[in-house]
Each structure stands twice: as structure tokens, then as C-alpha cells.
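The authors assume throughout that readers already know how a fold can be written as C-alpha cells. For illustration, here is how one protein appears when written out as sequence plus C-alpha cells:
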Amino acid sequence: MALTKQDLGAIESLLNKKFVAYQDAVIEAVDFKFQKIEKEMSELRSEIRRLTTTLDKFLKQMADYKDEFIILKTEVDQIKKVLKEKLGVDILAQG
């Protein structure tokens, strides 16, 4: 059985409709995946911001502790100096 131009035209028309439907399905699936990825990226950005804030607070506390330690060390050194000068007592660190 030979195909006529009319048969080929009908097949072409049917294939075009199927192709459009397939194309729409693929585009919809890809769009859904992109939306999912965008949502995950947004959640990751939020988590990174939260972690950055936490890290900033921690680093500030560490800097404050370091500053306080430097002040205390200076004060202890001054006390040791005064004790040695005024009372002749030499304080040595034990560890």
C-alpha cells in the first residue's frame, strides 16, 4: 500500500501536534526543575546568611575576649611589678 500526499500530510499534521505536546511537556518539566533549584538556592542563601551572622557574632566575642585578656595580662604584669618594687616579692608563673 502506497502512501499518498494526503496521507503524508495527515501524518505530518499528527506528528506536529504530538511534537508540540511533547515540547510543552518537556518545557513544563524543565521549568518545574528550575523552580525547584531556585527554591533550594534561596534556602541555601538564607542558611549562608544565618551562618555568616552567627560567625560574625562569634568572631566579635573572640575579639572581645582577646582584648579583655590583653587588658588583664597588662594589669597582672603591673601588679607583679609593684609587688617586686615595693615588697621585694617576685611572683613566678607555675604551669
The helical segments are 5-87.
